[in-house]
Amino acid sequence: MGHAQDEFADFYGSSRDSCLKAVTAVVGDRLLAEELVAEAFARAWTSWEKVRRHPASQAWVVRTALNIGVSWWRRRREVPLADHDGAAPADVSGVDPVLIAALRRLPTRQREVLALRIFLDLDTESTAQVLRIAPGTVTAHLSRAVTALRRDLPAASTDANAREVYR
Amino acid sequence: MNEHADVMCQVRESFAGLRMDTPVENVLARSRARRRRRLTGMAGAAAGAAGVAAALILTAPAHPGNSPRPSSTSATLAAFSVTSGPGTATTLILHKGPQYAPLDPSALRQVLAQHGIPALVTVGTFCRPAVGPLADGFGQFVHPSTLPDGSAEMVINGAAMPSGTRLSIGYFPGHIRLAVLGNAAALLCSSRSGQPAAHLTPSGIPVHR
Question: Do A118 and B199 touch (CB under 8 A)?
Answer without folding.
Answer: no
